[in-house]
Design a protein that fits this description.
alpha/beta; Globin-like; 3 domains; six-stranded mixed beta sheet; 67% helix; 8% strand; globular; GGDEF_dom; DosC_2nd; EC 2.7.7.65; Diguanylate_Cyclase; oxygen binding
Length: 462
C-alpha cells in the first residue's frame, strides 16, 4: 500500500479557518457534548451501519466490534476537541491513516459516507437539544461539528482513493505476473492434476469399502488452484465461471449420486460415472481454452529465488480475505525466517547465504499445493499463504517444512555443505477484514519462536 503523501495545504487551510471562526462558547459546547455523548454516538453509528447487509459483511466480527466502538468514541472526542492550530496536522494525519485502513480492508466509500451522515445527524440533534447554551451558540456548534466531520471524511476519501489506485495497479501487475508464468508448463500441470483426481475417483469407486466418501473435485489440487490461483491469471474470463460451475456440479450433484449407487454397482453406477467423466472432459476443454489465450511474459519475480514479489501481497491477501468474507473457507499465513542468517553470511560469505535462501525457496515450493502462494518477504524472511487449512493443519505444514529444511544439508562452493534451520510463525485468518493484522500476528508468533530457542514453529495465540 502506498505511503501517505505530503499534507494538502488547502485542507489544512480550511481546517484552520473552521477553528478560527468558532467562538469559545461553541467550542466548549461541541467538545463537552461530543465527549459526554461519544458512547451514544458510537452506538448509533454502529447500529445504523449494521442494519445494512452490505455493511455487515465488513463489520460483523467480534474483534471489529471490540475495537470499533472504543476507537470511534476516541475519534469523536479528539475531532471535537482539537482546537489548537498546532493539532491540525496531527488530526489530518489521523484521518489519512483511517482512510488507508479503509482501503486496505476494501471498505466501500459509500459506506463511509453513510457512517458520516449518521454521525452528523446524531451529533447535530444532541447539540440543538442542549440546554446549556443559547440557540445561537448551539447552531454555531452544530455547524462547526458538521464542518469538522466533512473535512475528516474528505481527508479519508482522498487517502482512500490514492491507496485504492495503488492497490488496483498492484492487482493489475499481479495479474500480469501471474500470466507471465510458463503457461505451457502450468497447463500441463493442471491437466495432470485433473487426471490424477479422475484416476483416484475410479479407484475409490472400484475398490473403496462401502461408506467411504468420494473425494470432491473442489478439494483436489486442481480444485484449489481453480478457486485461488486461476482468478488472478484469467481475471473475468467466462470460461473460468463455467469451470467453477462444472466443479460445483460434480461435487454437489453427480458425486452424491455415485456415492448412493456404489453399494449396488451395475449399469446405474456406470451411467453416473460417465456423467462425472463427461464433466471432467468439459473441465479439461475449458482449461485448454483458458491457457490458449495467454502468452509467455517474464516479469515480477524475486531475482534470487524466483518467488512472488512482496508487492503482490495486497492483491493476493486481499482476494483471500474477500473470498473468506463471502463465506469461503479460512486460510493461514506462515512467516518463515532463517535462523542465524547473519552468522551464515559472516562465516561462509554472501554466496553461501544466497544458496541457503534458494534452497529454502525450493523446499517451500515443494511443500505447498497449487492453491497456496509463496513470497520472498524480505531479507531472509518468507511468507506463505496456505488456503483451506485449520490451525492444526497449518501448524503441521509448518512443522513439515521445518523438518524438511533441517534434514537436508546445503552444498556450497568448494564441496563443503551447510546445515540450516528455520523458525516459523503461524496465524490463521479469523474473519477480520484487515489482512495486515494477520501478518502482524504471524510475525509476533515468529518472534516467539525465535525467543524460545529457534528451529521451531509457534501458532499465534497458542
Amino acid at each position: 500500500m502506498s505511503e501517505p503523501a505530503a499534507i494538502d495545504p488547502t485542507i489544512e487551510h480550511h481546517w484552520r479557518e473552521v477553528i478560527a471562526a468558532t467562538s469559545p462558547e461553541a467550542r466548549a459546547l461541541l467538545s463537552g457534548t461530543a465527549s459526554a455523548a461519544a458512547p451514544v454516538l458510537a452506538r448509533h453509528f454502529y447500529d445504523g451501519m449494521m442494519a445494512d447487509p452490505l455493511a455487515r459483511g465488513y463489520l460483523d466480527h467480534a474483534v471489529v466490534d471490540q475495537r470499533l466502538r472504543p476507537s470511534m468514541e476516541r475519534w469523536v472526542r479528539e475531532l471535537a476537541s482539537s482546537w489548537d492550530a498546532d493539532q491540525v496536522r496531527q488530526q489530518i494525519a489521523v484521518q489519512r491513516h483511517v482512510g488507508l485502513v479503509h482501503a486496505r480492508i476494501r471498505l466501500r466509500v459509500d459506506l463511509v459516507m453513510r457512517g458520516a451522515r449518521l454521525l452528523k445527524r446524531s451529533l447535530t440533534q444532541l447539540l440543538l437539544d442542549s440546554e446549556v447554551a443559547t440557540l445561537a451558540v448551539r447552531v454555531e456548534a452544530a455547524h462547526t461539528g458538521q464542518a469538522l466531520l466533512d473535512l475528516a471524511i474528505e481527508v479519508m476519501s482522498a487517502q482512500y482513493v490514492d491507496a485504492h489506485d495503488m492497490a488496483t495497479r498492484t492487482d493489475e501487475a499481479y495479474r500480469g505476473f501471474a500470466s507471465s508464468l510458463n503457461m505451457s508448463l502450468e497447463r500441463e500441470r493442471q491437466r495432470s492434476a485433473l487426471l490424477d483426481w479422475e484416476n483416484r475417483l475410479l479407484q475409490e469407486v472400484m475398490t473403496a469399502p462401502a461408506g467411504l466418501e468420494l473425494s470432491p473435485l473442489g478439494q483436489s489440487s486442481f480444485g484449489l488452484w481453480v478457486r485461488h490461483k486461476a482468478p488472478a491469471i484469467f481475471a473475468q474470463a467466462g470460461e473460468l465461471a463455467a469451470l467453477n460451475d462444472c466443479i460445483a456440479h460434480v461435487d454437489s450433484a453427480l458425486l452424491p449420486l455415485c456415492q448412493r449407487e456404489i453399494s449396488a454397482g451395475g449399469e446405474e453406477l456406470r451411467r453416473r460415472l460417465r456423467a462425472v467423466l463427461g464433466e471432467v472432459g468439459q473441465a479439461r476443454y475449458l482449461i485448454g481454452t483458458l491457457f490458449d489465450r495467454l502468452v509467455d511474459l517474464e516479469a515480477g519475480r524475486d531475482a534470487l529465488t524466483q518467488l512472488l514479489n512482496r508487492r503482490f501481497l495486497p492483491a493476493v491477501l486481499g482476494r483471500e480475505v474477500e473470498l473468506s468474507r463471502r463465506g469461503g473457507p479460512s486460510f493461514a499465513v506462515l512467516m518463515v525466517d532463517v535462523d542465524h542468517f547473519k552468522d551464515i553470511n559472516d562465516r561462509h560469505g554472501h554466496e553461501a547465504g544466497d544458496r541457503v535462501l534458494q534452497h529454502l525457496a525450493s523446499v517451500l515450493v515443494a511443500c505447498v499445493r497449487s492453491g497456496d502462494s509463496v513470497f520472498r518477504y524480505g531479507g531472509e524472511e518468507f511468507l506463505l499463504l496456505v488456503v483451506e487449512l485449520s490451525a492444526l493443519q497449518a501448524l503441521q505444514l509448518a512443522e513439515k517444512i521445518r523438518q524438511a529444511v533441517a534434514a537436508e544439508s546445503i552444498p556450497l562452493a568448494g564441496g563443503s555443505r551447510l546445515n540450516a534451520t528455520i523458525s516459523v510463525g503461524v496465524a490463521v485468518h479469523d474473519g477480520h477484514p484487515d489482512y495486515q493484522r494477520l501478518i502482524e500476528q504471524a510475525d509476533r508468533a515468529l518472534y516467539r519462536a525465535k525467543a524460545e530457542g529457534r528451529n521451531r514453529c509457534v501458532l499465534a495465540g497458542g
